[in-house]
Amino acid sequence: MKKKVYFISDIHLGADVGNDTSREREKRVCRWLNKVKEDASQIYIVGDLFDFWFEYKTVVPKGYIRILGKLAELRDSGIPIDFFIGNHDMWMFSYLDKELGIPIHRKGIIREHFGKHFFIHHGDGKGPRDTKYKLLKMVFANPLCQWLFERLHPNFGIWLANAWSGSSREKHNLEEEEFQGKDKEWLVAYVEKKVKELDPPIDFFIFGHRHLAIDYTMSNGQSRYINLGEWMHMNSYGVFDGEKMEILFFENEDGKIANK
């Protein structure tokens, strides 16, 4: 059986939003993992697996037993899994790495699979827009800010963070959830810039964050910008079989790519 590379993002476990509860969404993602483990050579979780996550030194958020157990099972079976920090789980530190053997990435990385080059990043704070968020991210990434938050009791700290996370998600959902065209899509602008800078040439730029399934061919006619969409409504994911890169939909016959 030919092995494949899988990409998934923006699941937002912990938030009862979209078509189902967090628990139902967690079970669905586990069903997807059961399916892809049969032919996966690599799995990338490209940010916002959790709607909020903060690791105190001796405390991690309650819940998520099913998804953590399934990820542990896949890693123990030898399937490589990489995790990218998203804007909702940016306070993920070392838990997944130490407990499950899943590397955590805070910056974009370049990987080669079957002779093709991939640039992978969650996508938040990239491109010419999101100035306020970029400043906020700098604050949240500051070690002093993280130390101060850790001083809060988990009951209060996690409640406070969940309230902020819900507000942020609500604001995001109010944005125009349609493909805005190359002149208004800030990740398209970012990729156009990176296409000219990166060597070797990148075949696929893989992002999440936008909450839209997008497959856009860049102006050089070779590179493609792939946005993985989300799992609160569409259940979309990316898969590369060594020849073809495509966006598919799990348990969703109505899924569609936004710019097609």
Keywords:
six-stranded mixed β-sheet; Purple Acid Phosphatase, chain A, domain 2; five-stranded mixed β-sheet
Question: What is the CATH C-level name?
Answer: Alpha Beta
Give helix and strand order, one letter per element, not per position: EHEHEHEEEHHHHEEEEE
Query: Main beta sheet, described?
Result: 6 strands, mixed
CATH superfamily membership, which one?
Answer: Metallo-dependent phosphatases
Strand content: 15-25%
Question: What radius of gyration results from the CA coordinates?
Answer: 18 Å
**What is the helix fraction of residues, given as a range?**
25-40%
Q: Domain count, please report it.
A: 1
Task: Walk me through what this model shows.
The protein is an alpha/beta fold. The protein has one domain: 4-Layer Sandwich (Purple Acid Phosphatase, chain A, domain 2). Helix content is 32%, strand content 20%. It has helices at 22-36, 65-76, 95-100, 131-140, 143-150, 154-173, 186-197; strands at residues 4-8, 40-45, 81-84, 104-105, 109-113, 116-120, 204-207, 213-217, 224-228, 236-240, 245-249. The strands form two sheets. It has a six-stranded mixed beta sheet, with helices on one face. It is globular.
Please summarize what this structure is.
The protein has 260 residues and is of the alpha/beta class. It is built from seven helices and eleven strands.
Helix-strand blueprint:
Layout: E1 4-8, H1 22-36, E2 40-45, H2 65-76, E3 81-84, H3 95-100, E4 104-105, E5 109-113, E6 116-120, H4 131-140, H5 143-150, H6 154-173, H7 186-197, E7 204-207, E8 213-217, E9 224-228, E10 236-240, E11 245-249
Parallel strand pairs: 1-2, 2-3, 3-4, 6-7, 7-9
Antiparallel strand pairs: 1-10, 5-6, 8-9, 10-11
Helix pairs in contact: 1-2
